[in-house]
Task: structure prediction
Amino acid sequence: MGDIKGFLKVKRKKSEIRPVCERVKDFADVVVLPKKEHSEEQACRCMDCGTPFCHWACPVGNYIPEWNDAVFNKHWEKAFKLLSATNNLPEITGRICPALCEYACVLGINDDPVTIRDDELAIIEYAFKQGFIKPKPPLKRTGKRIAVIGSGPAGLSCADQLNKAGHKVTVFERDDKLGGILRYGIPDFKLEKDLLDRRITLLKKEGVEFKVSASVGSDYPVEKLKKDFDAAVLACGSRVPRDLSIEGRNLSGVHFAMDYLIQSNKRLSGQKIPGEQLIDAKGKKIVVIGGGDTGADCMGVAHRQGAACVSQIEIMPKPQECRTKDFPWPKYPLILKTSTSHEEGGERDWSILTKKFIGESGKIKKILCARVEFKKDAKGYPVMQEVKGSEFEIEVNLVILALGFLYPEKKGLIEDLNLKLDPRGNVLATQDFMTSSEGVFSCGDMRRGQSLIVWAISEGRKAAHFVDKFLMGKTSLPNI
Result:
């Protein structure tokens, strides 16, 4: 490293966040891109460990010590080349990845970890600004045609890799715009959509073909798919939401988180939503059920829509603020995470069981809740028990269910191709990512189950490796 004692001299300093009073008035990115000098100073904290556990924790195997060293030494183009060698969407992971790498940083054992995610974002944005990134279509085409169904992070990464290998790739997207969950499931204050368009435009210039409003299985029959293409990759995500089947679930004003986020993103893009379908938090008392990142995103949207008050409740106990013995370094720990949306206001509560939705004239008015506690049974497994006499009600006008996802939609491709499923309801695929249908592969949440964006990218890259090997007998694409 350029400064082997940098971590002793410089303390961790994350990128600046826009003031709450300013950012809740718009949907612009909450993060202020750091200055070049700031990133160069923070990069010097990387110790170039003998065993870089940050690299071990990263699903795409980013060359973290190497590009941090390049940034510190002001070799920004080298840093970009190292970063882009393993990550197809660094401008997106640099904004919304939970940074598994930072929790595995060796410096984090007894100090604050390196600002890896911030440094990653600084590198890719500097590369775009300086013109390092230019379309590079493959010099030679193989003559093979591949269909990628789904334009989320797994689909885009897979398409990018297969195009680099010289195959002709067509990406099918059933929505009217590209990006999948990146476009419709992530609020603009975390990921502005012009950043997504910038990357997709680059892929188009490199030869990837995109078809929107094209639902394979209905608009485009699977028989035609198999006839027109030498291989197909299913990257349709895990879109069936987990529901809360309790009394009053059918009341007006109870919605799934993804429906709320999709509609918010569409409204922000200028699309008009009919009044009877509108989900708007303005002036309302909002309760988000589910304590994860999606629930936090819903809180942030509700703040910006002018909610009267916002609460987030979670059935699990409140996580510890520091690592426990159950999550030793370098494991990714289950600890309390406070997002920028939480900093903007609202309340959070844990160990809350939602028992009943109460309404008037068909509309949600209250939620009946109770406190719970978890006690271990004879085998040491935690068992939830309701605390007697702990029932209480919450007044509410809008309920958002952010309870995660179960598995991919069965109707359509899965049924048409008669694909086998694993015990969790995901598409069953072998170690080479091939499904039970010859020449049809699957990757991302559709195969793995609901997971993180960086895992989706990793899945897309690995699937591309095996597709290329299937078609050509060998491959130069990395298996990571």
Summary: The first strand starts at residue 145 and ends at 149. The first helix runs from residue 6 to 9. The radius of gyration is 23 Å.
